[in-house]
Amino acid sequence: MTQAVGPQYTRILSLGAARGDLDVPNDDIIGPIDSSDEWIRQRTGIISRKRASKNVTAADLAVAAGSEAIEKAGIDPSRVGAVLVSTISGTMATPSVSTLVAERLGVGTVPAYDVNAACAGYTYGIAQADALIRSGLAEHVVVIGAEKLSEMVDPTDRSISFLLGDGAGAAVVGPSDEPAISPTVWGSDGSHWSSIWMTGTFQQWRDGELESFPTMRQDGQTVFRWAVWEMAKVARQAIEVAGIRPEDLTAFVPHQANMRIIDELAKQMKLPESVLIGRDIATTGNTSAASIPLATHRLLEEHPEASGGLSSRSASERAWSTAPRWYGSPRIRGGHFEPSPRPSQSRR
Ligand SMILES: CC(C)(COP(=O)(O)OP(=O)(O)OC[C@H]1O[C@@H](n2cnc3c(N)ncnc32)[C@H](O)[C@@H]1OP(=O)(O)O)[C@@H](O)C(=O)NCCC(=O)NCCS
């Protein structure tokens, strides 16, 4: 009998991004929730959010982001061994978003499945891609976080509607000659199952038991406290298991839930001023599973010196810089460290 064995190490080779085509500033949504531009900016750091037109789906955004990532990885699509789409906003319970995306990416009949882990979805996807490659089940894996959350909000809801946006971020994960994705610290906490919820089930909607189609709600303060205190612990744990120190980091890219959460986490982690921080939420909003790859993509676009620095360090062959990845959700948690794609290694 034989057993599959893969390469010892993996890395992210490239990233891709696609945001909703519409800019929705705070002033456009405050009426139905009796809010103000000032309140939203102060409490969340959001100035405007990206949302997609009616005819655009999460799968469309995923294909756009995934295509860019595959092109930038410089690999033939036939070398993609699996496609994972992390999403909570597919248009149907089945078939999966990922099978449609794999078909449209032209990667053939490879394994494709959806990951339903909300804001943690992308980090869950990277953890699985790393494991699939190292176990010899795939040579390269496309991981995509894709959401059209505007379909899931009630414009009159004051609890969460104003936070959410639409977009997709993608990564190609492949083999590496050196350690480049640290161990993932992950888990879940079902005791907070009801901190973020839907207003009802599809069955209740079908049976006429709901006044309107189910939409999202949250207990904002509970989620806020949980994100800051518990996620800071997970982030510190991820640093520890990676065998690095906060001052070794080039960038910190947490889930883009709320600018105040991002700032508080950076403070608790005692990050030095030199560490770049992903703050894509200001103009994209909270895109759940898409938020970390979107924020990383933007950070590298706005700070090409970070790519240059990483590239120059890669010349030493053993050195690697890290960009932290973790997410905050009351139900599922995970985090790990990984280097941002380096120009010198992004084309193989
Ligand atoms: C949602 C969130 C922005 C609310 O901010 P907050 O500072 O906790 O606000 P509070 O709920 O304490 O409410 C403060 C005041 O603002 C009011 N308020 C609540 N929502 C409001 C809104 N949308 N617009 C204007 N005022 C609002 C409240 O009524 C309250 O008024 P009061 O002081 O007169 O009683 C914040 O809790 C948050 O970001 N939570 C975590 C979000 C998150 O990570 N979600 C994960 C999903 S991926």
Explain what the structure shows.
- By secondary structure, the protein is of the alpha/beta class.
- The chain has 2 domains: 9-176, Peroxisomal Thiolase, Chain A, domain 1, CATH 3.40.47; 185-346, Peroxisomal Thiolase, Chain A, domain 1 (3-Layer(aba) Sandwich).
- The chain is built from 12 helices and 14 strands.
- The chain has helices at 30-33, 37-44, 58-73, 97-105, 121-134, 202-206, 220-242, 259-268, 281-284, 291-302, 304-314, 343-346, and strands at 9-19, 22-25, 48-51, 80-86, 112-115, 140-148, 166-176, 185-188, 196-198, 216-218, 251-254, 276-277, 323-326, 332-338.
- The protein has a 5-stranded mixed sheet, with helices on both faces. A 5-stranded mixed sheet has the order 8-14-13-11-12, sandwiched between helices.
- Mean pLDDT is 86; it is low at 308-348.
- Bound molecules: coenzyme A (COA).
